[in-house]
Amino acid sequence: KAGVTQTPRYLIKTRGQQVTLSCSPISGHRSVSWYQQTPGQGLQFLFEYFSETQRNKGNFPGRFSGRQFSNSRSEMNVSTLELGDSALYLCASSLTRYNEQFFGPGTRLTVL
Amino acid sequence: DQQVKQNSPSLSVQEGRISILNCDYTNSMFDYFLWYKKYPAEGPTFLISISSIKDKNEDGRFTVFLNKSAKHLSLHIVPSQPGDSAVYFCAASDGNYGQNFVFGPGTRLSVLP
User: Fold this and answer.
1) Which DSSP category does A70 fall into?
2) CB contact under 8 A, B43 and A103
3) Which helix (H) or strand (E) holds A12?
4) How far is CA A60 from CA A44, B41, B42, B99, in A?
């Protein structure tokens, strides 16, 4: 069974731009969560989607948004990028909302 | 304020010996805990979980112990192998929030041959 895939793997943007990251969960998994990993803050929860609806949201500004499609694929968008948005963005999928999560390899975003 | 703490940023252990990674939490509503392992340039990999109705869960070389009164859990790896060298994250959830896991900052384990 294929794992969680994320595209692109690496991205370089400049301040003020916007970016969209994509995540394809494991086949059959319906819950997708997004995390931001930075050296200083560790892994921080961004949001969770299940059945195309955002179920949970972490403590991030409104510039961070996401969506989930009917095939469970998910995208997250960051608008008006700031230098501090440079991080590894991880997507995780799980069968239901209460199972262990399986992570993708992440998208490394660098904001210049 | 960090709700999940891993106070040792790094740990070195000799191959074949026991590795003990510790995790403390402050939120008494947390009732489900997981450990993840992360290699460089890869996403975290689920290792083992425990719910608050148990105080121990074992899976091969990995055992997680939960002490609810102390709000403390630990991951034991026996015997430690060089391939276990990675960053280990402890995560906690209060169940009511689905996948809203709170992660600790991680502990880098180095298993020396």
Assistant:
1) T
2) yes
3) strand A10-13
4) 9, 24, 24, 16
For residue B103, which residues of chain A lie inside 8 Å, CB to CB? 35, 42-45
Number of Cβ within 10 Å of residue B66's Cβ equals 20
- What would the two tokens of residue A22 be? 């994509």
Pick from B42, B91, B103: which is nearest to A105 by CB?
Answer: B42
- DSSP codes joined into one string, chain B: --SEE---SEEEEETTS-EEEEEEE--TT--EEEEEEE-TTS--EEEEEEETT-SEEEETTEEEEEETTTTEEEEEESS--GGG-EEEEEEEE-STTTT-PEEP--EEEEEE-
The residue length of chain A stands at 112
Q: How confident is the prediction along chain B (113 residues), in pLDDT tens digits per residue?
A: 678 999 899 999 999 999 999 999 999 989 889 999 988 877 888 899 998 899 999 999 999 999 999 999 999 999 999 999 999 999 998 766 556 788 898 999 999 99
Q: Give the one of A4, A48, A105 whose C-beta lies nearest to B100's C-beta.
A: A48
The contact set of B with A (CB < 8 A) is 32, 34, 36, 41-46, 49, 89, 91, 95, 97-106
Residue A95 buriedness (CB in 10 A; 0-12 / 13-18 / 19+) = middle
Q: Which residues lie across from B36 on neighbouring strands?
A: B46, B89
